[in-house]
Amino acid sequence: MAVVFSLPALISARFEAAAGADPELRGATKPQFGHYQTNLALRMAKSVGKPPREVAEDLVSRVQLDDLCEPPEIAGPGFINLRVKASVLAAAATELLRDERTGLPRAEVAQTVVVDYSSPNVAKQMHVGHLRSTIIGDCFARVLGALGHRVIRQNHLGDWGRQFGMLVEQILDEGLDVTTLDLPGAEALYQRANAHLKASEEFAQRARDRVVALQGGDEQTRRIWRQLIDISLAGFNATYRRMGILLTDADLAGESSYNEDLPVIAADLEHRGLAVMDDGALVVFAEGFETPAIIRNSQGGYGYICTDLAAVRRRVGVMRANRLIYVVGVPQTFHFEQVFAVSRMAGYLPADVLAEHVGFGQVLGPDGKKFSTREGTAYPLEQLLNEAEEHAAPDVALAAIKYADLSSGLQKDYTFDVERMTATTGDTGPYLQYAHARACGILRKADADGISYDAVTVVDSPEEQNVALLLTRFGETVELVAKTLQPHRLCGYLFELASALSVFYEQCPVLKSEGEVRASRLALWRAGERVLATGLGLLGISAPDRM
Ligand code: ARG
Predict the structure, then answer these.
(1) Distance, CA of 54 to CA of 60 (rounded, Å)
(2) What CATH number is given for 7-84 in this structure?
(3) What's the Cα-to-Cα distance from 224 to each of 115, 175, 189, 210, 514, rounded to whole Å?
């Protein structure tokens, strides 16, 4: 019997079979109540027209559980308390230990999932908003991939638009060799161009003409534009490597890559009567939206929305995606609602393809205000990484940042508090790394002493049982993250596991115990270590074996 692939699911299925209802199992609140509790009898009592305790007794006599649990107990008004058999917990932990996927289920239907994330803008450094998108999107890519889905990462680089007119013009004015710039240098150039634009109407006109030249494919303009992209990418890629992010150049699908699709989209929408002319602009009025979606403005330019429509069309039509995920800050919620609505109207997004915008909140500074530099500009990501590294080794600092970003609800703002984030106690990334390193330490010691172990056979104490129970929940937790796109559920689970291992460590001596108990405890440590390492990996966090 394979039990590691979710014990609660297995128990729930037994209730479903006998009563046709989900027991909605909950963890017991106290060890003396067993391991799980269900209030199913209380919920059913009304419709059955019998006292809940009687319903509970009836349920208990009908649900076949004796291979998994001790005889169920009925408590209080009619709760059913379940205690998993120690032998089943031992078997589950052993199974997980021997499973090369560490108990991760494989999706029954593998989907093609596009994850749009990071997506910084050329000639600007990534800021804290891009940090969140990069970390969260990377976690989704890892989780979905681990469950056997086909993940297509898309970095929707901001490499097109009116700003390139002023950038190129400024470069020519200054006689600058772009290839000598780094990313901060490019950003400084951006600021000079912006100031110039505001100060001089003559420059502003040249910038507008330069946009036309860029769109028309003028050779010199395109060459400088390309150089700007290349130096920006060098900077972005360095950050991705530094942060252990999966993105590579193969995942790039910048805005400019949709240029040729834009007039096609406009014509398609117009011919089918979905888009109409309004004040010289081509727009779509989607139901439920106060403002229309602008496909082409009155100057003939295509904007952000049209590019995203083209992206949807390519992702569904060419890449055959079943699910589209966009990891972009909350302020763009309206944009994506509109893009999805228009895409549905146009048939670019069929009803069976799921499109989700995963918005996230802001990163706040220690003063509780939006995180920015002393000059009031967006806080560059690199600076933030440097700060965290002043408090901890690079991979620990990175764990601190990633975990802080993933462990609270995504929509919530969170405070960038380096001291708290890098602490090795409390609900932090470094604490989880530490828990993993401690497990490795125990196992290393056992290896050095030549002690062998290969199965969990004794799980008699509540501490051992708690660890084993948690291990059986790993797979369903990861599945839940894939479904809900809420990484904090995995963080919470791993923190619970680390805490359970810590109690196990304090209460149950390993190397000082003997014989079968010792071997079994070591095997349980190994299983815990595997789940911690795999789970951290899914968050994009390294699991060093010593700290
Ligand atoms: N470049 C945009 C920004 O920095 C984010 C792009 C998000 N992705 C998309 N498909 N629109 O705000």
Answers:
(1) 10
(2) 3.30.1360.70
(3) 30, 12, 13, 11, 71
What are the structural domain ranges in the chain? Answer: 7-84, 85-105+119-140+361-547, 163-236
Taking residues 470-485, report their average pLDDT: 95
**What pTM was computed for the model?**
0.95
Identify which of 128, 328, 381 to mutate to test ligand 1's pocket (most ligand atoms within 8 A of the CB): 328
What's the pLDDT at 2? 59
Asked if residue 531 lies in contact with residue 474, where contact means CB atoms within 8 angstroms, the answer is yes
pLDDT band at residue 206, thresholds of 50, 70 and 90?
very high
φ, ψ for residue 171 (rounded to 5)? -60, -45
**Would the CB of 255 count as within 6 Å of ligand 1?**
no
**Ligand 1 center to 403 CA (angstroms):** 23
Contact assessment for residue 149 and residue 423, using Cβ atoms and an 8 Å cutoff: no
Q: Is 311 in the pocket of ligand 1 (CB under 6 A)?
A: yes
- CA–CA gap between residue 165 and residue 478 (Å, rounded): 46
| 85-105+119-140+361-547, CATH topology level | Isoleucyl-tRNA Synthetase; Domain 1 (1.10.730)
CB 488 near ligand 1, within 6 Å: no
Given the CA of residue 329, which atom of ligand 1 is nearest to it? 12
